[in-house]
Amino acid sequence: MRLPRHLLELAGLFDGLDDVLAWIKDRDGRYAWVNRAFLINYSLDGQHAGATPDLTDVVGKTDHDFSPAFLADQFRIDDESVLAGHRIVDRIELVVQPDGRAVWNVTNKVPLVDESGTVLGTAGITRRLTTPGQADAPAHELGAVLAHLRDHYPAPITNRQLARLAHMSVRAFERKFRASFHLTPQRYLRKLRLGMASRALVYTGASLAEIASGCGFSDQSHFTREFRRQFGRTPREYREHYARRSNDAALVPKPDAGDQEPRRGAPL
Length: 268
Prior knowledge:
This protein has a five-stranded antiparallel sheet with strand order 2-1-5-4-3. It has helices spanning 5-11, 36-41, 69-83, 143-152, 159-166, 170-181, 185-203, 208-214, 220-231, 235-245; strands spanning 20-26, 31-34, 88-96, 102-113, 119-128. Helix 8 packs across helix 9 (220-231). The chain starts with a helix and ends in a 23-residue tail after the last helix. 40% of the residues lie in helices and 16% in strands. It folds into two domains: 5-128, 2-Layer Sandwich (Beta-Lactamase), CATH 3.30.450.20; 143-245, Homeodomain-like (Arc Repressor Mutant, subunit A, Orthogonal Bundle). It is an alpha+beta fold.
């Protein structure tokens, strides 16, 4: 996808944001542009400060060139949803860094359309949910709600509890949340739990029952049912599939029922 000059000039504004990763992809998921923070995050920025970022190591590549297979596949599922016209708004997720650390991010993705309304590709940004000197949640009317979901996703959470955090009635909160995130609060929470579970399946050797409990599902059957609905595979199939595709045996330990359950809030 060849980006118009005016779009490149506008996108260049993101090079001044050190804490925001920004990108544009074509319909096939190939990167057409990324900002400097993206290059630095993946150790691809060899330029001096103030110089124009060198995109030659990124343009034309896909997420499979930069991320573990299970994450790259999830990113592609996101892209396909966005290409169909759906936006991803302020989604909190645990993002694995190139050095193996996992950090909480807030992610937004939108479709890119031309003057005729044809979808050309996708654009997205992601930033740390907490950084030094920054509040504990994004500057959003529902920031306290997002922080609570992040910190307490394994526990039962009701809309009434979240509405109190937002200082709204339950009905007003549910309307506001859906208008902001295009999901009900409980669907948002379920997607967060499933995302955490997918990482636990790949990065830990915890049993399926431990992961189900540690990620907030009532039991293993409930976990398996919801997971298969989201990812098209059972948790066991998912773990085996990505264990086979990993190039780093240390990255995906073999399941061991004796391993400890993931600690709440710890990187997976």
